[in-house]
Write the structure tokens for this entry.
Amino acid sequence: MAAGMLDKYFTRRDAQVLVASAGLESVSLPVDPQAVRAARTFDVDIHTHRPRQVNSEILASEGSDLIVTMTRQHLRDLVFENSSLWPRSFTIREIVRLAMHIPANKAGSDLAGWLATLGQGRDRREALVDDPAFDVIDPYGQSMRKVQRVAADLDELAMKLSVSAPWPRPIKNQH
């Protein structure tokens, strides 16, 4: 759902961003039908999504300027495999919180500068501690009410993230 929500808001902002989705576990389960229904209420269609496991090939071929995880455990697992990912890897709640506290004149003019600003003072040890305030729990198989709450939360976080950074835009032809 998160990738669908992010893609929706980036498209609305005409941002040149590739949103890709991959998890840490190998899964052969289909997308949760309740998640499909919940996402539709936010104008997001995820019915064709197929889960896949993240690997170095996906990170290399689909780009990884920014990696957004749902939980600190996901963040730890990813960074444990490749510590060079730390500066551009955040939980979705963490990056939104950090972004909301950066004054526009301090944010940087490009994505790399923005991420560097976000990372100032960030301590890897904080990610070692589980904190529900930083996690969006996977609602797979939960009640429709729970899935809908997670969808609403992800939609809000995706909207905030989409407006907070200097995302690349297409170059306009000036005649």
